[in-house]
Design goal:
Layout: H1 3-14, E1 27-32, E2 37-41, H2 54-64, E3 70-76, H3 87-94, E4 103-108, E5 112-117, H4 118-121
Parallel strand pairs: 3-4
Antiparallel strand pairs: 1-2, 1-3, 4-5
Amino acid sequence: MTDRELMSLAKRASLNAYVPYSRFPVGAALECDDGTVFTGCNVENAALGSTICAERTACCKAVSEGHRSFRRIAIYADSENWCTPCGACRQFLSEFCKDHDMEVLCAKAGERYVSYKLSELLPHTFNY
């Protein structure tokens, strides 16, 4: 699957976002090491701590289906800035990627995206 195809799945997932408070829909497409892809969107809640980001939604779907090793993730939002994962999502993703070097594709308006390694975005992970 190409980067653009993965990003297209993330964009499509953003259409399902439930964002009555922020009005900031985000979609994610997570590719596992075996090539399986899981998508997710952000789901907000009036109790803000119960809100879940698109990246963690996709990750939880993958884990609940038995996948534990991730290759890359595409994150899409129609925004002026690159849509990078929040700190909690960075740490959450690091739990399931070898050497913390999964590729993180971050989009913004205009179908543009940049690529980072998770280790660039989270140089010092919390682990045991």
